[in-house]
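Duplicate of #3305? Posting structure anyway:
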């Protein structure tokens, strides 16, 4: 029996959705994480400070009695976002980041940005006030192969943006490639990156080899093995710019298991157990706390959590739930395809 006690983790990239799904999934994040950066890609999206304040109330109402989970709200950047509104939300303490979705890149991104130049005035204001930009780093050019879209985004969008506004603090969300890792490593302190548990565990074979498995489909899509290994090396390095963002992104099962299934992996219930497995496998359990609980707060200029959690390794694999119910429907939980031996102690 082995235990590991670390500061309570935060999730720096989370989709909680709304309505019945929000009610069903929020407790799974709240039980493990102290805080989470909440993605704004609802329908309609969370565009203004007023939208974000209302969404925050709905999240708080969905939490279990007595939960101290803190949703850190973001705004969805559009071509008509007003710098004044963004700054007002930031000064209020409500808005912790702004999210850039290239229009058409992923779930509910239609209202996103087509031409990054239209967003420069808002981005310049964010740089001036120190408000981070979270980016979905994929180009939408249909001539670019889907497995190359992250690398193309770095070259076409991120490098020019860094040159134009070097003071802008950017988080490259859910990096999936060695290109992403190398790019972030080469930047100064204004650049961070989140890494998901599933991109540390699966490569593209999980989706496509031996049958098509929609529950492993997400965006950016998992890449070749060499990329997964580069992500692992970054996550276990303890290096400051790399931190946990689960990208837990629930879609009801019928919307995943169909001819054109939605992108997204729902992993909130077993993220920490999976990560403990990965870090143990890498002989790097001593770096887990940096990845889950220290590097993220440092980037977002927030104190790390004072509370501690203990992970316990048991010899007999833990019985994991496979589904979460939402009324009559279900959400499938990420299956890491290995037995899980780690459990967060109550
Ligand atoms: O797989 C994904 N699902 N990637 C995203 O970028 C969005 C997310 C969602 O909202 O479903
Ligand atoms: Zn996401």
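Output from current build:
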């Amino acid at each position: 029996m082995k235990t590991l006690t670390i500061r309570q983790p935060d999730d720096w990239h989370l989709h909680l959705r709304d309505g019945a799904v929000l009610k069903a999934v929020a407790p799974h994040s709240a039980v493990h994480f102290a805080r989470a950066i909440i993605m704004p890609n609802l329908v309609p999206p969370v565009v203004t400070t007023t939208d974000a304040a209302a969404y925050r109330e709905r999240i708080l109402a969905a939490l279990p009695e007595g939960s101290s989970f803190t949703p850190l709200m973001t705004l969805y950047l559009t071509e008509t976002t007003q710098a004044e509104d963004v700054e007002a939300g930031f000064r209020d303490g409500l808005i912790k980041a702004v999210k850039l979705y290239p229009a058409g890149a992923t779930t509910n991104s239609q209202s996103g940005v087509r031409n990054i130049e239209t967003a420069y005035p808002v981005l310049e204001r964010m740089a001036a006030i120190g408000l981070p930009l979270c980016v979905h780093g994929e180009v939408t050019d249909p001539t670019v192969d889907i497995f190359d879209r992250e690398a193309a985004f770095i070259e076409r969008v991120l490098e020019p943006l860094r040159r134009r506004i070097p003071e802008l603090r950017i988080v490259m969300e859910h990096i999936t490639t060695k290109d992403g890792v190398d790019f972030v490593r080469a930047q100064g302190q204004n650049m961070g990156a989140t890494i998901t548990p599933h991109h540390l565990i699966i490569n593209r074979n999980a989706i496509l080899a031996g049958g098509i498995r929609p529950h492993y489909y997400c965006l950016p899509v998992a890449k070749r093995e060499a990329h997964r290994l580069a992500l692992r090396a970054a996550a276990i390095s303890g290096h400051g710019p790399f931190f946990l963002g689960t990208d837990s992104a629930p879609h009801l099962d019928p919307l995943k298991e169909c001819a054109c299934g939605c992108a997204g992996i729902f992993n909130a219930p077993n993220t920490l157990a999976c990560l403990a497995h990965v870090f143990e496998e890498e002989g790097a359990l001593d770096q887990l706390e940096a990845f889950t609980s220290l590097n993220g707060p440092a980037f977002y200029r927030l104190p790390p959590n004072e509370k501690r959690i203990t992970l316990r390794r048991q010899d007999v694999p833990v019985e994991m739930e496979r589904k979460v119910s939402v009324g009559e429907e279900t959400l499938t939980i990420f299956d890491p395809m290995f037995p899980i031996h780690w459990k967060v102690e109550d």
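Confirmed duplicate; merging threads. The CA atoms of residues 236 and 282 lie 8 Å apart. The two ends are 16 Å apart (CA to CA).
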